[in-house]
Each structure stands twice: as C-alpha cells, then as structure tokens.
Write a structure and sequence with these properties.
InterPro entries: Put_conjugal_transfer (IPR032811). By secondary structure, the chain is an alpha+beta fold. It has seven helices and 18 strands.
Length: 382
Amino acid sequence: MKYSKLFLTLISTFSASSFAMTSFDTRSVGMGSTGAASASYLTSSFHNPALAARYKEGDNFGLILPVIGARVHDRDDMIDKLDHFQDIDDQLQFDPGNDELLDEWRKALKQLDNGNVNVEANLGTVFAIPNRHVSTNFFIKSQIATIARFNVHDDDLHNDDPTDSELLSSGQAVGVAIVDVGFTFADTFTIQEHDFMFGISPKYQRIYGLNYVETLDEFDDDFDVEEDYVEKSAFNIDLGAAYEWGDHAIIGLSAKNILSQELKTKTHFGQKATVLVQPEFVLGISYDKSWYTLTADIDLNAVEHFKEYDYKTQYAKVGAELDAFSWAQLRLGYMHSLTDYADDLATAGLGFKPFGIFGFDLAAQAGADNNYGVSAQLIMHF
C-alpha cells in the first residue's frame, strides 16, 4: 500500500536519526495508560517523577531497554481508499477516454474528501538507581505523532479529462517528534506524620516538526523528510507529587512540560502547521494490595498538538493488574476520551518476570474504527 509506506517512512526516518525514543511504558499501556499514582520507581520518569522514591527494600538498580510501541487510527479506511484512487489514476493515464474508468476515478476521489489518518510510534530507555538519599533515574523518551488529512477540490470532480490538467485535490501530513533526555530526582518527606513524595525531571528537549503537502495522485511519491522538517532545542521540566494514604493507597499528581513550546513548520502550497508542546496535568489514585493493583487517572486538561488542527486529546483512565508471585502479571484497562476528537480504547497486557530479576512486558490497545496499538519492553531489576 503506497500510503502505508509513507507513514513507515516517517517512523523509520525519525527512528533512524541520532536520537532514541520512548513514550509510555508497556505496563502502563496494558493498564489503560495509567501511571500518575501506579508507576514504579523504574517507570516514574514517564508518568510522575515523585514515584521514583517509591521503591522496595532490596531495589538497587533497574533498567528498561528498550520500550517500543506504535498505534494507528484509520477511522475511515483512508489508507486503502488512497491506494485505490492512485491505482485507478494510473490506469486512467493509459486509457483517458474510458468513461467507465473516469466515473470510478471520480467516485474514488470523492471518498477521500475530509478523510484523516493518525499514526504514533515510540521507543526509549530508563536507568534507575533508587536510594534513601535521592532516588535518581536517567531517561530518554520521545513520541512521534502524525496526522494526515485529504481535501478534494470540486473542479477535479467536474473535470472531463483529468489526465490533461494538474490535480487540485491535495493531502497534508503534519508530524511531530518530541525527544526528551533528562534525569529524575525524587525523595520522601514526612510532614506531620504523613509521607509525601516529591520529584522533578529537568530535561533537554528536541522538537521536530514536519509538513508535507502534495496532490493526491502524487501523495508520498516524492516524500523527502530532509526537505520537509524543521527542528529546535529547548529546556523543559516535569514535576510530580504523591501522598501515601494508609498502607495501600497512593494519590499522585503530575505536571509535564511546564514550559510551553512552539515550532512552525515549513510552508508548502500555502499550507503550514505549528507544533505545540503544552503542559499536561494528570491526577491519579491507586490501591496496591501486593497481588492486585487497581488504579485510575484523569487528565485535568485537554492537550492540543497542532495549532491549525482542531484536534485535542484528554482521557479518563482505569486499570487493573493481577500479580502471580511477582513472576507473571495480567493487566486490563480502559481509556475513555473526554473530547470528540479521539475514541475510547480498551487495553490488555501480560508481564513475565521469572525470579523477579529479568522480564518482558507485552500490551495492546483496541478501539472502534481501525484503532489499534501495541507495545513491548524488556526490564531488569537488581
């Protein structure tokens, strides 16, 4: 499929660059992408820096290498529809007088109008050293997100010989890759006999913005990341706090990307995009009873990723984990979208950690209208 090759190119090109990537860890994905109160010291840098101080006696060192994931949401089967249109367009070039083929060409073109596809990918690592002085993590995390939309021009639908003129209908793919490299520092403080955890993650941030615009008959044929992307460097901070409520419950609050950032893409055919990195605030609660964990998160604000695109995400999330003697875990979760721009997702995951030292996690997401995601990671504890 031609269009799928475009997004594979986007993902592979960024991934092959001189930086590593990650987003949410696989355990979190299986539990509905929760983590503000349920993350471990090893995954705290992804969710709530304060939880780096939440470790057990005997935890000396932890490693995630790597975590990798991807998700595709093709709500209206636009990938197949674009391939179908381009195949018919190629046939029409060799048989321009075929009225039946021309009608099929118009029908295929009309099906692309206002269609969109979303693609995300991630990859990364964490090195964690919990201790009673200041628990410290080194992390590399990033996420690639792309949105493609198609616009059909009325003149193309009424053109009696589209082979004799340039197509006016076009597609635009805008993408962002955000790479964070930083440290997490956290500790526990007792205030009036209550234990509070506080954490901070100062980080170097690299932001990449992509804007690709082309007519629908040529979409992805001449795609060149080197010509279509821009980049900038920035400094940012994540903050976190957590409160141990009784022996088993934790309440967590995280604030990511405190410093807002913007990056304008290049302009093509009069179209451009502005990449946004906005603060994200998440409140969570978890109940950990050793052999099972129940958790819930809520995004306190909607996050916009591109200024020109009316697309925001905000979720309420729940998750659960059953743990069999720390050797195997079963995870389930659900993400309910609080905006009209994204759909609900059901999640599931498995974990295997023989002897409690080395292990791996697998997770999947599924939603309506061709919305699927997968994630995997390797972990080690010493």
